[in-house]
Amino acid sequence: MIFTASQIAGILEGDVEGNPEIAVHKLSKIEEGEEGSLTFLANPKYTSYIYTTKASVTIVNRDFVPEHKLTTTLIKVDDAYTSFSKLLEYYNQVKNNKVGIESPVFLSDTAKYGADFYLGAFAYVGSNVKIGNNVKIYPNAYIGDNVVIGDNAVIFAGAKIYSETVIGKNCVLHSGVVVGADGFGFTPNENMEYSKIPQTGNVILEDDVEVGAGTTIDRATLGSTILRKGVKLDNQIQIAHNVEIGEHTVIAAQTGVAGSTKIGKYCKIGGQVGIVGHITIGDYVKIQAQSGIGRSVLDNETLQGSPALSYGDFNKSYVHFKNLPKIINRIEDIEKKN
Length: 338
Description:
CATH class of the largest domain: Mainly Beta
Strand content: 25-35%
CATH architecture of the largest domain: 3 Solenoid
GO biological process, one term: lipid A biosynthetic process
InterPro entries: Hexapep, LpxD, Trimer_LpxA-like_sf, UDP_GlcNAc_AcTrfase_non-rep
Number of domains: 2
Pfam family, one: LpxD
Shape: flat
EC number: 2.3.1.191
Strand order of the largest sheet: 8-11-14-17-20-25-28-31-34-37-39-40
Distance between the termini: 82 Å
Oligomer: single chain
Pathway: Bacterial outer membrane biogenesis; LPS lipid A biosynthesis
Largest sheet: 12 strands, mixed
């Protein structure tokens, strides 16, 4: 895709200083800019690069005044970082604006889909599936029976959506995601042999949820596993049966949440966190990476460690932990003297 500086300025409501007809066809970092590329300057630490960059067009803040001669054409905007992010989003929309049904696919006669639908080759769409407008389902995806997918959702290649799952508007599911597999439910008998407990519930993803590659979200035993509006999950996360995650909570990679735990809204959970089942985590909670959460957590707590302590207590304890050899030596010296 090729855009001129004037076209980009029109998208961003910016002003061109330089050649309005200069064209770009790729994006770059300002320090790695090449002819034909578009970059941006938002952090003052990178200002020196604007005088040496070979990028054809650079987005800058309106208050930027060059101190030396420039070879790059400027587009001045209110906020360079926000405008560049907007441009990336626009670029992705144009790049991913596929429409039509490729061949071969399986699309059930009872499935219904809206306008501007894309279904990639070797995808499977089961019975009674309902798909909204502008939905994109990439090759090798599996959509089970009775699934509902809202407008503008994107299901990337190889994602597997089990039956009865409900996916809201503007959701993004990346490659390798599995939504709606059975929860880990087994019951032992007197011989310590395990019988499977049927998992008859489903998964509900509300609007604006994004799920990273390789993440798994299990269906509920009864009822629903629910990710509320705006939840963002990183890659390779395990969400167990009957978990509920509140609005706009974000969780980093390799975290595991055990069954029936309720997580509040606007929480921030780091990578490799382990959370036990059947507890409640409040709103606005922050959990540092590699923490182990074995108890319910109140609103606004910040935790670290395994088992997790409050963030302040953990840091105080860690200072003493590092000094344990010295402390032990002092104790032994005192004991010898006595």
